[in-house]
Design goal:
The chain is α/β, with parallel strands linked by helices. The protein is about 30% helix and about 25% strand. The structure holds flavin-adenine dinucleotide. Flavin-adenine dinucleotide binds next to helix 1, strand 2, helix 6 and helix 8.
């Protein structure tokens, strides 16, 4: 084991103990670090962003319900009081397993005794021409801000030309999973608000929000009655839902489907799935696992590398049914906690234990008053009750007390009224993206 750090980390080493390098400060990486805070190890979290992003609420930033700072939290601040946890801002480009170092974008090397890959996933465009250039995914704070700028700019443009060309506006959301459903519902509410409260000159009947999916129903991981409920709610909000539709090309202002239809669009929102291909996960093994994920043992060790681990979306974590656990926040958090515990066990000379996932259910919200929550073996909770459960859970897991408080106040306020969300285009008119 390499016991010396090659980093230029500032300050004295807290203790001459093994160095754990965690790449990624998302849901999984933060839990590894939390589990190791105060233990006899030195921990360095490396992330290309200096903040943790609460991805499940990005759609609310994109649709001007929340500010970016309300869903992000500085990683340094999370561990400000933990003497043995440090943060390094940077992008890990490569892992040299033989020398036990990670190499950053600026060629800095950080030596490790234990390595944890917690780099998450990214949007999957499935090689569809034009999709990665012209569709807007929702995977980072920058994506959310870009999408918000695009949505609000499209509405401003419609108002600007209202006298000369009463244009229609089409917004297409690709993917009927939780992100697509949540974004469609929120977009419908945003547009109604902007017309009603902000005096936007746009005939609401000329705006189309179209949610397309290849599958025959929405929210496929949920029971059918939850899918039916989500469909009914979205249609009630004016969203057109089209099943069995596959996208073959995305252009700058248009989308083309396999049946030959070409539709002019103001924006294409890409919520069609995730992949780890192209992320650091595909660099750590010659033979990547499904979806580009790192193959790990039941105890989450990278195969043949007992001191290297992978958690969360970056890892293909085997489940007892012979498949893999889904790329969801609870899996990331629980796998992170598990790895922290196994690193401590290894330090005590004990063998690692297999990971056991405790499924607490899944949920998705549809607009401001409705949600579906499916418990593991229990019922599906719908409507306002589901929505309250959704609110409570997201507030609970949001990082930072200030963020929890601000989001709670904003949600409460906007439940009763929607007077002044952060509907700001933070870009010049010429470069509205
Ligand atoms: C829009 C959206 C909505 C979602 N909604 C839900 C939901 O409602 N419920 C649910 O359970 N799950 C949801 N998910 C999934 C959930 O967010 C993920 O499963 C979870 O974030 C995975 O955690 P992670 O730690 O593996 O990765 P992430 O949270 O993605 O964190 C990865 C971190 O690694 C960093 N990183 C990546 N590569 C590098 C590198 N090379 N060098 C340095 N840093 C790097 C990134 O900056 C990031 O901070 C949603 C995901 C998205 C995108």
């Amino acid at each position: 084991m390499a016991m010396t750090s090659m980093t230029a980390l500032t300050g004295p080493d807290p203790a001459p103990s093994p160095h754990v390098v965690i790449v990624g400060g998302g849901f999984g990486g933060l839990e590894v670090a939390r589990g190791l805070a105060g233990q006899r190890v030195r921990v360095t979290i490396v992330d290309r962003h200096n903040f943790h992003t609460f991805l499940p609420l990005l759609y609310q930033v994109a649709t001007a319900m929340l500010e970016p700072a309300e869903v992000a939290y500085p990683i340094r601040t999370v561990f400000g009081k933990a003497d043995n946890v440090r943060f390094r801002h940077g992008q890990v480009r490569h892992v040299d397993h033989e020398r036990q170092v990670v190499v950053l974008g600026d060629d800095t090397e950080i030596a490790y005794d234990h390595l944890v890959i917690a780099t998450g996933a990214t949007a999957a465009f499935f090689g569809i021409p034009g999709a990665s250039q012209h569709a807007i995914p929702l995977y980072s704070l920058a994506d959310a801000r870009r999408l918000r700028n695009r949505l609000l700019s499209s509405l401003e443009h419609a108002d600007a030309v209202a006298d000369t060309a009463p244009l229609g506006l089409n917004f297409v959301i690709v993917g009927g999973g939780p992100t697509g459903v949540e974004t469609s519902g929120a977009l419908s509410e945003l547009i109604k608000t902007v017309i009603k409260r902000d005096g936007l000159r746009l005939d609401p009947t000329r705006v189309r929000i179209i949610l397309v999916d290849m599958a025959p129903r929405l929210l496929t991981p949920f029971p059918e009655k939850a899918s039916a409920y989500a469909l009914k709610e979205l249609e009630r909000m004016g969203v057109e839902v089209e099943f069995g539709r596959s996208v073959v090309e995305v252009e700058e202002h248009a989308i083309r489907f396999a049946d030959g239809e070409r539709l002019r669009v103001a924006a294409v929102i890409w919520a069609a799935g995730v992949t780890a291909t192209g992320t650091l996960a595909t660099d750590v093994q010659a033979d990547a696992g499904p979806g580009g994920r790192v193959r790990v043992s039941p105890s989450l060790q990278i195969l043949d590398r007992p001191h290297e681990w992978a958690v969360g979306d970056a890892a293909a974590i085997p489940n007892p049914d012979g498949g893999y656990y889904p790329q969801l926040a609870p899996v990331a958090m629980q796998s992170g906690r598990h790895v922290a515990a196994q690193i401590v066990r290894q330090g005590e000379g004990k063998p690692p234990l297999p990971f056991k996932f405790h499924n607490k259910g899944i949920m998705a919200t549809i607009g401001r008053h409705a949600a579906v929550a499916t418990l593991p073996k229990g019922p599906t909770v719908k409507g306002t009750l589901g929505w309250i459960a959704w609110l409570g859970l997201h507030l609970w897991y949001l990082v930072g007390f200030r963020n929890k408080l601000r989001v709670m106040i904003n949600w409460t306020w906007r439940y009763f009224d929607w007077p002044s969300g952060p509907r700001l285009i933070v870009a010049d008119a010429e470069t509205a993206d």
